[in-house]
Amino acid sequence: MNLQWYPGHMTKSVRAMKEQMGLIDLVIEIVDARIPYSSRNPDIEELAKGKCRMLVLNKTDLADPSVTALWKKAFESRGITVLELDARKSDAASRVRPLIREACREKTLRDKKRGIVGRPVKAMICGIPNVGKSTLINSMVGKTSAKTGNKPGVTRGNQWIQTSFGVTLLDTPGILWPKFEDQTVGRHLALIGSINDDILDEKELALELIRILSEAHPEALAGKYEISGTGDGYEALELAGTRLGMLGKGGEADLSRTAKRILDDFRSGRLGRISLETPEKEKA
Ligand SMILES: Nc1nc2c(ncn2[C@@H]2O[C@H](COP(=O)(O)OP(=O)(O)OP(=O)(O)O)[C@@H](O)[C@H]2O)c(=O)[nH]1
Ligand SMILES: [Mg+2]
């Protein structure tokens, strides 16, 4: 499956982020804990040059906790301030705040030397689509200030949001990589739901998921769909459809509906806590 998706609004979003960067003290980059490698947009590195930085491994409730711990260690060993998070939880704010302080320590000291004390931190929240940027902002302000939704491209423009603890947050639209050289990156982004499903062949993507799971997590397929040994992939998809009772008019499995269901089961954690990338396998 050859995947490229970089709609025009993303070019605009990158431009808008660049324009705002002069005002920003801290860049909070959010990645998906299931694919920390593929969900880190290399453009952000360039955009955030010279700023205080922190990295949030979000949706940890959907990822394998032992793999997430390895990622945290890998990033920390490169001097990056990292937080493991479920952005929907009410404790998100109290967990992020001390990390913000830590990430901004140098800046605060610099300010102090110049006699500036207690100036609010201006933080830009950025990351790929659907990773939980707006959800984190809402948890940090304790109310629904930013629009959220379980599909990519919900936030369309930059929005400043005030917190009660001296941090001003800038919500930004998700931006993807303009071009993936490695198609695995595209597939992983599609699997977690950061690429618009309208441009995807869901059957092919579900087959890819079945292939990955049959290698790394056969128990998930066996437990949920009673399938083991994938055959040619299609066979497994058919079997899953039959087991789920997702049948077409002729009584055969409806492969499109089955594919959608399997992808949805994975994305929402019903197949268990599954990480698709480990720091050993990817270049962290
Ligand atoms: N399971 C789980 N779901 C989360 C978490 N954080 C956010 N979500 C869900 O992920 C979906 C996307 O969240 P948003 O906050 O809209 O994501 P976004 O990064 O702002 O997306 P765009 O504005 O489209 O770029 C929503 O359905 C959230 O409820 C998390 O930590 N765990
Ligand atoms: Mg958003």
Topology:
Layout: H1 8-20, E1 26-32, H2 42-47, E2 52-58, H3 65-76, E3 82-84, H4 92-103, H5 105-113, E4 121-127, H6 133-141, E5 159-162, E6 167-171, H7 183-192, H8 202-216, H9 218-225, H10 234-244, H11 255-267
Helix pairs in contact: 4-6, 8-9, 8-11, 10-11
Bound molecules: guanosine-5'-triphosphate and magnesium ion.
Guanosine-5'-triphosphate (GTP) binds next to helix 6.
Description:
By secondary structure, the protein is an alpha/beta fold. The chain folds into 2 domains: 8-171, Rossmann fold; 201-267, Conserved Hypothetical Protein Ylqf, Chain: A, domain 2 (Orthogonal Bundle), CATH 1.10.1580. Helix content is 42%, strand content 12%. The protein contains 11 helices and 6 strands. The chain has helices spanning 8-20, 42-47, 65-76, 92-103, 105-113, 133-141, 183-192, 202-216, 218-225, 234-244, 255-267; strands at residues 26-32, 52-58, 82-84, 121-127, 159-162, 167-171. A 6-stranded mixed β-sheet has the order 3-2-1-4-6-5, sandwiched between helices. β2, α3 and β3 form a beta-alpha-beta unit. α4 (92-103) packs across α6 (133-141) and α10 (234-244) packs across α11 (255-267). The mean pLDDT is 91. The structure holds guanosine-5'-triphosphate (GTP) and magnesium ion.
In short:
The chain has 284 residues and is an alpha/beta fold.
Low-confidence stretches: none
Q: Which small-molecule species are bound to the chains here?
A: guanosine-5'-triphosphate, magnesium ion
Superfamily at the CATH H level of the largest domain?
Answer: P-loop containing nucleotide triphosphate hydrolases
Structural class: alpha/beta
Q: Termini distance?
A: 25 Å
Report the strand count.
Answer: 6
Q: How many structural domains in the coordinates?
A: 2
What is the percentage of strand-forming residues?
5-15%
> What's the CATH topology label of the largest domain?
Rossmann fold
SSE pattern, N- to C-terminal: HEHEHEHHEHEEHHHHH
* Chain-averaged pLDDT: 91
- DSSP helix fraction: 40-55%
What's the main sheet like?
6 strands, mixed
Please tell me the CATH architecture of the largest domain by its name. 3-Layer(aba) Sandwich
Strand order of the largest sheet: 3-2-1-4-6-5
